[in-house]
Amino acid sequence: MDYRERNSLKRIATAGFLWLLASIILLLLAVPPAEGLSNGWETVGTGIEYRMFRLPDPNNVHVARMDRSNLSAIIESSIARGRLSGGFETVTGMADRYDQAINYWEQSWGSRNKVVVAINGNFYDTKTGIPQGGQIHSGWYAKRFDDLGGGSGFAWTLNRTPFIGRCVTHPHLKQLIQKISTQETIEFSGINESREGDELILFTPQYDSNTRTNDSGLEILIEMTRPTLILPTPSYARGYVREIKNGTGSTSIPFDHIVLSASGSAIADLSIFELGDEVGVSQEITDFQFGCDPPTWIDWTKTYASIGGSFRFLQDNAIVDSSDIGALERHPRTAIAYNDSYIYFIVVDGRFPNVSIGMTIHELAVFVKDTLGAAWGIAQDGGGSSTMVINGKVVNIPNAELLTNKIYLPMIFPGGSSSSNSIIPRTNASLGPIPQQDFGLQRAVANGMLMVVVEPMQRSFTYIPDNAVKLSEATAIRLGPGTNYGILATAAQGSQGVILEHFNHLNGVLAKGSFWWKVSIGGIIGWVPEEALISAVN
Length: 538
What we know:
Elements: H1 3-30, E1 42-45, E2 48-55, E3 59-67, E4 73-79, H2 91-98, E5 112-120, E6 135-137, E7 140-143, E8 154-157, E9 162-164, E10 176-179, E11 184-187, E12 190-191, E13 200-203, E14 218-224, E15 237-246, E16 257-262, E17 278-282, E18 303-307, E19 312-315, E20 318-319, H3 325-328, E21 333-338, E22 342-348, H4 361-371, E23 376-379, E24 388-390, E25 393-394, E26 407-411, E27 422-426, E28 447-455, E29 468-471, E30 475-478, E31 487-491, E32 496-499, E33 509-511, E34 514-521, E35 524-529, E36 533-535
Parallel strand pairs: 12-13
Antiparallel strand pairs: 1-2, 2-3, 3-22, 4-28, 5-24, 5-28, 6-7, 6-18, 8-9, 8-18, 10-11, 10-17, 13-16, 14-15, 14-16, 15-17, 19-20, 19-23, 21-22, 21-23, 24-25, 26-27, 29-32, 29-36, 30-31, 32-34, 33-34, 34-35
């Protein structure tokens, strides 16, 4: 055999090897992850992974999972525009709103959110943007779940326990404000809702920048040492009376305060309080109802994050079917599920013929149980609302039915492997893929849920209380340390003020890319970023 024959055989062998290798790669890429591809998970944050499952229906299912044993990763809820009084915002917008904002996870304010995964939340009033059901945000019980409303959604507690609530109630004489010195108690009527006649309403910072009362009544501003939480008596969240306003209404609500707002006969109840009084807030949710099927008991104490939900499709490894027409049709879906190891966020694309047709609730339950191995699951708002955002980028195709005249091509998920190919649109193939956060028609919704990596508190020590300062530029004075909080007023360049001591020692805290200081400027007390301050000492 001469060298020409040997080279020819080498070329044939090499070509054969390359053909075999290419065939193996193509075969691996053709196997849907649902059929057991074990290396499909991509790390997208500490303790958080993402994977897209291509199912033969056809369906594209986007799944993020959080390792429950990783102490850096937690669950948080999100609120459109940061206000439960009503508002709409995209999932991308809410993820950005709470990214690098301070939280209460360490049971003190100051650590920050690194938002890794965001999904849409519960159904909502399409006219007002007020979400259905209740909500707990960063430890604040910010909107009550409906009594015996049929379900109360997914919840996550400060001790890292997930659960899916059932038929909750708020027991009479268990929703109390206490004057600690005398142990006198009064009961409040509701949380973050419009105040009617003869009512005492508790407003938290999640309601709006102020109470929006605009009428006569009595309002008491209380600075809290921690969020209100769910703390049944005799436990309570502690605070101190800072201001009593009679007949003016619309009291501003700083990030670590509540307002007690009374009208009519309820005004007399607040007469027991004076400036400086120590106050306790106790709340209880009863989740044990024989009317539920089956009867359950769940402890809501110190729940950190929760929103309402719709179809509870998986309970202790058993599929729960529904005869509701909304469950029986195939639609885009959003869901939350869990087992002993992971919390799962799931988004199913739908209404996209030949690409992803959507799932019934039963099909969703089978996938979550058999493929993910979850034991519990509940659906959120679906349809055009279904959206998943990872590290600021939309990874699914929201509102697919509204996309027209576009070419859809596979693209590898940024930073990932070919096992996580996702479908993105191109308006013109020659122009390349458009940015993921821009494609589709992402729907503005009322709330959502987040997977968050907790970053440690950082502080500046540039100033100390009583330091005289002035503004280096026109600056917004905010209700809390971060641009995610509402604006009290805008002060002009050169306005002079003083650094105030903060009750919870947060002065100089890092949030939203700046160090923040509590100041009094022109009689307005609020928070400004350090880069807008200079010393006023000559």
